[in-house]
Design a protein that fits this description.
The radius of gyration is 14 Å and the shape is globular. The protein contains three helices and four strands. It is α+β, with helices and mostly antiparallel strands and 102 residues long. It starts with 12 loop residues before the first helix and ends with a helix. It has a four-stranded antiparallel sheet, with helices on one face. Strand 3 and strand 4 form a beta hairpin.
Length: 102
């Protein structure tokens, strides 16, 4: 498998991933997801975990009851790559899916 490439600065994070925050050093994407309860938050994390295994790219995250705080970065290149964008988009979709099921 080839080494992931850093995302060029032309990527429009605000337009493409409006709910995510780009760190000042441009090396991480961060977002907090809030659900109705712990069950929804945990279901979200399960979906994300399965997908992370599929693409072999794992988030740094923390769960506190109904909140899941996420930080994405590709540690092997010390910055953001397509893997992070793919994971962020999937997480957004999983959050919408969980919220619409209840």
């Amino acid at each position: 498998m080839s080494e992931p490439k850093l995302i060029v600065q032309e990527f429009n994070f605000q337009q493409e991933l409006p709910d995510w925050k780009l760190s000042a050093d441009l090396k991480t994407l961060q977002r907090q997801f809030t659900f109705l309860d712990f069950e929804q938050a945990f279901e979200f994390m399960k979906l994300c975990a399965v997908f992370a295994q599929e693409i072999d790219h794992h988030p740094d995250w923390c769960n506190s009851w109904n909140r899941v705080t996420v930080s994405l970065s590709t540690h092997s290149v010390d910055g953001l790559t397509e893997l992070d964008i793919t994971m962020a988009r999937a997480m957004d979709q999983f959050a919408r899916q969980i919220s619409s099921e209840y």
